[in-house]
Amino acid sequence: MSPYLTPEQDKYMIIQDWGSYTKAEHAMWRRLCGRQTEVLQHRAFPFFLQSQKALNADEQFLPKFDDVNTLLKKCTGWQIVAVNGLIPELDFFQFLASKKFPTTTFIRKPEEIDYLEAPDIFHDLYGHVPMLMEPNFANYMELFGKKGIEALKHGFTTQIARLYWFTVEFGLIRTDKGLRIYGSGIVSSKSESIYCLESDIPSRLEVNMERIMRTDFYYHDLQKMYFVIDHIDQLYRILDVNLMPYYERAVAKGDILNYELVQGDLLVSV
Ligand code: HBI
Ligand code: FE
Prior knowledge:
Blueprint: H1 7-10, H2 23-40, H3 46-54, H4 65-76, E1 79-83, H5 89-97, E2 100-104, H6 121-132, H7 135-153, H8 157-169, E3 172-175, E4 178-181, H9 184-187, H10 190-198, E5 203-206, H11 209-214, E6 225-229, H12 232-239, H13 244-253
Parallel strand pairs: 1-2, 3-6, 5-6
Antiparallel strand pairs: 3-4
Helix pairs in contact: 3-6, 5-7, 7-8, 7-12
The structure holds 7,8-dihydrobiopterin and fe (iii) ion.
């Protein structure tokens, strides 16, 4: 049993009742996968696309968590745990520190196809699980859980949430074919998958821990700021330090609005 897990987390865990999914819900999964996999062909990080295939998130039916876990365990030792929605930060980080990814089991309604408030199974499973099959990223996510627990203890909830947002959810990566997407919030959104690489509205900056911790973000709109890494293992390297001085400097220097550029920003061209 992981030292980070307590019986506390059990109250958030549910069972995926795969038999209860309706035809319409399977059809919604099919529709989302078919549409998004096409959009991502030359936009997503290659490893993400390969994992998608390996996951054979069989696009005909919603995936069974047991099948996903058999594959995921083999790849990186991670497991997805079924939850029914957003859970408190501390519990979320404790799951991550235990190599468990809280994954919702419900799927969005047709009227929510382009955007929904809280993560559904498409966002969590289609968006997050493929990257959890990449060993360096899986290590980053486990370390992230530990750093998250520490951040909450010291009152840096906002700063660590920004770090999660601009890497895990909305991160971009340089490849020899140009910028590609690895952030789950983007890969599960058709419009943002196109916009983040092709629009000239958002700025794209070199990843910078302190700058990220100062940067505000939108929940309900396309981002105006993205951060770019060179390699997936770069994430672990920049996180595996004493973060306290970064938190303190970020708080002392104050927040930066999502669309604002400041002195020292290193802009990345697409
Ligand atoms: N809970 N189920 C779930 N999924 C998330 O992505 C999630 C969460 N709780 C908190 C949270 N994300 C964010 O606050 C992260 O910044 C931690
Ligand atoms: Fe997410």
